[in-house]
Amino acid sequence: MRERGRDTRRRPGRSPSAGAAHACPEPQADFPMKKERPLEESREFEHHECMMPEPVNIQKTLDSFSELWSPRIVAQFNDYDVRVAKFHGEYLWHSHENTDELFLVAAGRLVIHLREEGVERFVTLHPGDVYVVPRGTEHKPVSEGESHIIMIEPTGTLTVGDTHEEIPDYVDATTGHRVN
Ligand code: NI
After folding, report:
1. Using CA atoms, how far apart are residues 83 and 134, in angstroms rounded to an integer?
2. Are 148 and 107 in contact (CB under 8 A)?
3. C-alpha of residue 70 to centroid of ligand 1, in Å
4. Where are the alpha helices (DSSP H) in 17-115?
5. Ligand 1 centroid from CA 114, angstroms
6. Contact at 8 Å (CB) between 35 and 45?
7. Ligand 1 center–CA 94 separation, angstroms
């Protein structure tokens, strides 16, 4: 039996701390930009500097968690997330009505089953392969062994899609978890 569920949450506002945790450095007493600029401008400069994220390492992020089908957000750009996840076993059939979904295989092997106008087929992805599931296409990722997957999709996209099968206990229905 299929369920229809729509994620009513809209894209969350971006906070300056989005992405990697970053401690704003204390301004130096002899910071040259501050001396040469008017007060307002220098504040703006400092604020902008504080928004600069630190690099995030994908392998370190993968090493930091073990949950399956539970993506971590490693970067955000424009209105998109870059997420990394560990897959093992079978996911559920689902579709995203309003967005394409990009999969890039970092490690392991990923089979994505697809249903288009009642016709079922699958694609097999190996490390380094990238594949885009078009919006509205039903898909079901399957990973015989553990695979490590990078996904790019709009911020707020629910992992289980807008239309999906019953969600099994081992599946984390989420819009992605932040890494700290
Ligand atoms: Ni999907």
Report:
1. 18
2. yes
3. 12
4. 32-36, 39-51, 58-63
5. 11
6. no
7. 6
pTM of the predicted structure, to 2 decimals: 0.71
CATH C-level class of 56-178: mainly beta
Distances (CA, A) of 156 to 8, 144, 145: 10, 28, 28
> What is the whole-number distance in angstroms between the Cα of residue 75 and the centre of ligand 1?
18
Give the length of the chain.
180
Contact 83, 176 (CB under 8 A): yes
Would you kindly state where each structural domain of the chain is located, as residue ranges? 25-54, 56-178
Q: 156-166, pLDDT tens digit by residue?
A: 999 999 888 88
pLDDT digits (tens, 9 = 90+) for 52-87: 778 999 999 999 999 999 999 999 999 999 999 999
pLDDT tens-digit map of 30-55: 545 544 555 555 455 454 555 677 89
Paired sense of beta strands 177-178 and 72-77, if any: parallel
